[in-house]
């Protein structure tokens, strides 16, 4: 407790923190995985429609890039589950959480690319209008604000300074000081 009677931070062991962070990470991945699986499943069927052969070469390239990005996104977002299963019981949960967190961030970046290219392809085929790049750019800007801008701003704005951390600094801070 601090002077003003408010508790600052959590008092948990590294293992307790890893358990809590793992649970939070898995919940986040579940949300992203559902969307990725639906989008990727849809993308895999497009090539079997007769209209696919009538697409321009550029649109077919955009489609192929989108499918590859979707496959990579799926791999990155399912990766934490495989990681957990393969290292479970090996006493490496804190390290596994860090690796899974990095895979998830890579998956979100790949999802950003997948959704951007999917939107570009769909709007190019559906409208054939010159304003499509502007629409896609606007949505990309929105993704950047929602997925990266606001979270990074909140992290910078609201994260306690190292002086406020007291006796229980985050694992990353403790790791850097070793």
**Spatial separation of the terminal alpha carbons:** 27 Å
- Summed up, the helix count is 5
| Global shape | flat
Helical content, roughly?
over 70%
The main sheet comes to:
none
How large, in whole angstroms, is the Cα Rg? 21 Å
Spans with pLDDT under 50 lasting ≥5 residues?
Answer: 171-178
Q: What is the SS-derived class? A: mainly alpha
Strand tally: 0
Beta-strand percentage? under 5%
What letter string, H or E per element, gives the SSE order? HHHHH
Rounded mean pLDDT score = 86
Walk me through what this model shows.
There is one protein chain. The protein is an all-alpha fold. It contains 5 helices and no strands. Helix 1 (14-46) packs antiparallel against helix 2 (57-87), helix 1 (14-46) packs parallel to helix 3 and helix 2 packs antiparallel against helix 3. 15% of the residues are buried. Residues 171-178 have low confidence and may be disordered.
């Amino acid at each position: 407790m601090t002077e003003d009677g408010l508790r600052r931070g959590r008092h948990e062991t590294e293992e307790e923190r890893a358990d809590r962070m793992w649970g939070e990470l898995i919940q986040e991945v579940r949300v992203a995985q559902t969307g990725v699986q639906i989008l990727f499943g849809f993308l895999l069927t497009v090539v079997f429609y007769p209209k696919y052969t009538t697409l321009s070469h550029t649109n077919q390239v955009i489609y192929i890039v989108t499918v590859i990005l979707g496959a990579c996104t799926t791999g990155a977002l399912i990766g934490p589950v495989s990681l957990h299963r393969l290292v479970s019981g090996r006493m490496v949960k804190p390290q596994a959480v860090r690796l899974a967190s990095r895979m998830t961030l890579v998956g979100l970046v790949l999802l950003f690319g997948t959704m951007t290219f999917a939107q570009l392809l769909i709007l190019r085929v559906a409208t054939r209008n010159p304003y499509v790049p502007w629409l896609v750019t606007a949505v990309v800007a929105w993704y950047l604000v929602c997925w990266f801008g606001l979270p990074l701003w909140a992290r910078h704005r609201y994260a306690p300074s190292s002086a406020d951390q007291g006796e229980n600094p985050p694992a990353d801070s403790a790791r850097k000081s070793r």
